[in-house]
Structure formats: C-alpha cells, structure tokens
Design a protein that fits this description.
Blueprint lengths: L2 E8 L4 H21 L6 E7 L2 E7 L8 E9 L4 H11 L8 E5 L3 E10 L4 H14 L20 E9 L6 E2 L8 E3 L1 E3 L8 E3 L3 H10 L6 H18 L3 E2 L3 H8 L6 E6 L9 H12 L2 E4 L6 E9 L8 H25 L12 H12 L2 E3 L3 E2 H19 L3 H10 L7 H5 L6 H9 L4 H9 L14 H20 L13 H14 L6 H7 L5 H22 L4 H8 L7 H15 L2 H24 L16 H22 L3 H9 L2 H10 L7 H18 L11
Parallel strand pairs: 7-9
Antiparallel strand pairs: 1-3, 1-7, 2-3, 4-6, 5-6, 7-8, 10-11, 12-14, 13-15, 14-15, 16-17
Amino acid sequence: MPDLLLELFSEEIPARMQAKAAEDLKKMVTDALVERGVVYEGASAYATPRRLALTVHGLPARQPDTREERKGPRVGAPDGAIQGFLKAAGLASLDQARIESDPKKGEFYVAVVEKAGRALPDLIAEIVPEVVRSFPWPKSMRWGSGSLRWVRPLHSILCTFGPETEDPEVVRFEIEGVAVGDTTKGHRFMAPGTIQVRRFEDYVAKLEAAKVVLDPARRRDIILTDARNLAFAQGLELVEDDAVLHEAAGLVEWPVVLMGSFEESFLSVPDEAIQATIRANQKCFVVRDPKTGRLANRFILIANIEAVDGGAAIVAGNERVIRARLSDAKFFWETDQKPLPGYEAEGKPLDQRLAKIIASNVVFHEKLGTQGQRIERIAALAKALAPVVGADPAKAERAARLAKADLATEMVGEFPELQGLMGRYYATAQGEDAAIAAALEDHYRPKGAGDGAPSDPVAVAVALADKLDTLIGFWTIDEKPTGSKDPYALRRAALGVIRLVLDNRLRLPLLTTVAKAPFAKSNDIADDLLAFFADRLKVQLREQGARHDLVDAVFGLGGQDDLLLIVRRVEALGRFLGSEDGKALLAGAKRAANILRIEEKKDGAGAYAGGADASRLTEPEEKALQAALQAARQAASAAIAAEDYEGAMTALSQLRRPVDAFFDKILVNADDAALRLNRLKLLEEIRTATRSVADFSRIEG
C-alpha cells in the first residue's frame, strides 16, 4: 500500500516547541485524512532543529467512493423547499429522487447522492496547505512580502506518495511560493548540499549519511550514552538531567559530546547552584566525583558539529561563558553570607534578609497583605501545630520565620528554582539547628506526585502551616479554584496537606486547625474548605485504587475532619464491602433507607426516631433483629471509640442474617398503623447502626 512522506524544512525551530509541533503535524494530517474517509495503518512524526517530518504508511491509492441517502421534504411541499432540496442534493429534477412512505409522516422524497473518491495525491495536495496555514505554533512570524506565518522562515516542502515497489510521485501544491518537491538538505555545516529522497526509509538513511539524526529519541540516546562514557573515562559520573537532555537534543541534528572544565575554586559554591548556573546558561551537564559524592570541576557540552580541531574551540568558548557565570554565582554565594548594609543590627544574615522583606512591604496578595504579614501568620500557625506533629514549638516558629528569607538573597534572585535549598545552605552556614535548616528546604515539599513529603517534625509543622495559610487565606477572600483554573495552585496545596498528614500518620483535625488560623473569618469557611479537602482526598485515594463513593460515605457522617481516621475508615469499609457479609448488609441497609425515604414523605422526617417499642414486636424475626441491633451498636460503638474500624465492621457483620430474615418474613407497611410505625422505627435503627461507621446510602451498588 502507498505511503506518504512529508517534510517541512525551515530555519531553526526552538527546542521547547519541537515535540508538540511533531505531534500537532501528525494529528492534523491524519485527522484530515480520516475526516475524508481515508484510513491508514500507522503514522510517525519527527522533529530536528530545522525540520518537521511525517510518515503515514498503509494508505489507499484513492479515497473510497461514498453513497449517501439524503431525506427531503414531503411530497407536495412548497416549491421553495423542493428547490432547496434539489440544490443541496445536486439533482436536476425530482425524477432523480425516489419517494418513500412513513406511516406517521406520509410520503417524502429521498435523494441518493453518490460521490466518487478522489486520488490520494489530490487529497494530500488539499490537506497539507490547510495544515501549514493553520498550524498552532505558540509564536510565529512572517517574512518577506508573503502572508504565510511559520515559527521561522519556511524554505522548502518535501512531499512524496506511492507504494514501496514503485518510484513515488511528488505531490504538487503551492504555498505562497515555497517550493514543493522530493529534495531536502542535510546538516547545515557538514553536508549542506541537496538530497533527493524517495520514501521514508530512504529519507532517514540519506539524512544520516548527511549528518542528520532524524529521530529525537535516538539523539537523546546518543547524547546520554556518549556523555556517560565520556564521564566514566575520566573516572567521573554523569549527573543526569532530563531537562538538559531534551533541550540539547532539540538544539542539534548531529550530537557530538565534549568535555570542558572550570577552576576548582568555584567548587566552594553549593553543587546545586553550580548545576543551575551551567544548566541555565549553557545547557550543559555537570559530573560528579564518585569518591567525594560532590561535583567535579568538569562539565559536558553537546556540539552540533564534528570540528576539525576536535572541538577545542567549542570547548574553550563554553568554558569562557561558564567561568563568567560561575564567577557571578560565587559572588552571590559569598555576598549572601555577609552583613546586609543597613540591616546589620538585625542579627544573622538570614535574619537581615527577613528584616528586609518585612521593611520592603512586598505585597503577597492585595487582599491578604504583605509577605511579612504572611510570614507572621505562618510562624504563629507552625508554633500552634508543633505539639500536634511532635515538633519543638520554638524551633517550628524559628524555621517558619526564616523559611522565606532566602527569597531576598542574590542567589535565589538569579535562580528562583533554588528557593528553600539556598535557605538550608545559608541557615547551616550561620549555625542554625539542623532541623531548622532542613525545614527551610523541605517546607515546600511535596512539590508534586513524585516528590516525597518531609518527615522531620519541624519541617512538617512549617510545611503544613505554609500550605494551610495559603488555603485558608484564599478561601477567606473567596478566590477558590474553578473547573479549569487554579492560578494559586490550591489543589496542589491541599494534596500537599493530605500527603503530609497521611505519610506521617498525623492526627490533625482540620476544623480545629482552621479555627486556630489567624484569619478572623476562618470559622466561616471551615466547612467549605473541608469539602474541598474531601474532593482532593478522593483524587488521592482513587489513584491508590480506592472507591470515591466510600470517601463520600465516610464524609457523609458529618464532622469528619481527621484525614488519617477517614482513610482508615475508608480502607476498613472497602475490605468489609468486599466480603459476602458486607455486600448483603449493604443491600439490606439500602433497602431499609429506601423504604424510610418513601415513608418519611408521608409521616415527616424524624417520625421514626426513638427506637422501636419492644412490647410491640410480635414476630420472632422482629425480636431477633432488635436484639442483634442492640448488640451490634454497643460493640461497634466500643470499637469506634478505640479507633478499631475493623472491629466495628465485624460487629456490623452480625446484622446480616437478622436483616435478611426480617425482610424475608416481615411486612413493614402493615395495615395496623401502630405496628407499621414500630417496624419503621426498627428500620431506622438499622440506618442508625450502620451510620456509626459510614452513610451507606452514599455507597454505590
């Protein structure tokens, strides 16, 4: 079957745009083919700095013929409707239509529209210009006098179509003077000549011969393998960095791995700052000395050319830039540890930076005050939370006060991604307690799903205070996340609180904690914020395989704000409902709840409170059920008081047979009104007993 090969050759495409552009090209072309009724076996897209390429294989030679029946107006309809129908169907007269009958609508006209399929090259010549003109680049430009927009000037288009057993044909079309043919160009410097290609395999091989590796995944593999080997040859280890790897692979068509060096004196700067400097400015890798575990004074760069001097000039150029940038980093590192002019009386360097933040009145949010006011709130909340998490209150308060101080340092000003980390370095340098120093870095964690939560109590107290202050603050000013927008990352903050609580197995009643927060209106938003936590907890537990309805069932009891106990209840409930006793009791409890809901519409809510009158129980099944309910309630209550949810479920499981027997033998809605009421009260006792562990009415199934 025929294959399509398409290449769009241009000036350099920014590395950050290449992967999405390749996927967009594949999707737009294949979607357009499918919309026209054309199916294919597979498609792949590729990107290099100077080209986007697409291959679609297993295509038909022609678009399939189509046959469509188009329903028209009824027989005898006004002439305007008839003429509109004929025009839309492409018919010359009603003689070309047939008449069908409908028992309800009577007779109406039907046109059979048959359309012959077009040759695939004709369709491709129609599709590709549409794709190019509407391509969704994040940023694009015009050049020359034309109106075409592309990420960089588009030089040529290669487009061939045909079966592998024959010479493919060039698909001819025009896009504002850009040439379309069966040629491309190799590496800009090492093989700049024109290359004629036939189909995809031929294209890849000839590009490789012309010093172009088409597949970005293969370029990444080459870079990573060669970088590891080069480091190993020097007795060092590559510090792998996915961001640098993807960026470097998007900057070169023919990766050449080289090693450079810098002065050992720069190693006095923290490793992370050195890596951030080299990554940000030169997109290079750093290497580690396995003997010391620290960085070595070497770096690995990726060139796009096999230089005649073996890359010496390229390495020297990179060394000059890196030397200058590391000089800046060393200056920042040393300056940040010196007294801050005008704030010498404030104490240690971080205290001086904190004083600068407070004095500058930098606004955190116009409705939530300054950054200094926020720091005071976090410090107060961290101190209050310290006993709950087992931390020293004085250390928690001190760590919270210093947690944002590094935001005013030169190093974090240059490299914002080092916030927290540099705080730990500076705190250690000025002699702070180790737990306080660690908290300055760890209070930002967990930063995402793959990041662990801190476990040291001081760090946990500050991390909780930081995230809870953010949530409570934005809830207070009614700046909550919407379905599509969460500009303040409040969902991430809530998930962070959940992770901190669950990973550290903390007993942290949220309603009480919110009430401790400095905001005056904390109590007013507590219930709504708790519901938000419930939604986030569902997400967290669902990712772990738990059912969301079980979370609803536990939260449905009301007053449930201890996340750890909620999870324990959910886990125990899930195991219980997986048993035969649990499934049967759930069915009985839901049956009781349904009857009560119907009857309460007649008698009013609360009509069945107070328990059944034992003297009015006439049947053995009624008496057995009441006895079982009393025993189960007592056992379940004792188990819950001891936070033994497995025990509570075991107690409830004893209700299965009495409940089944009751519904098998007893007519609830008896003719005798007093008997009916007493039996409904017995059903209310079933609902009350099960609600000691969860709201069974919210459980699906």
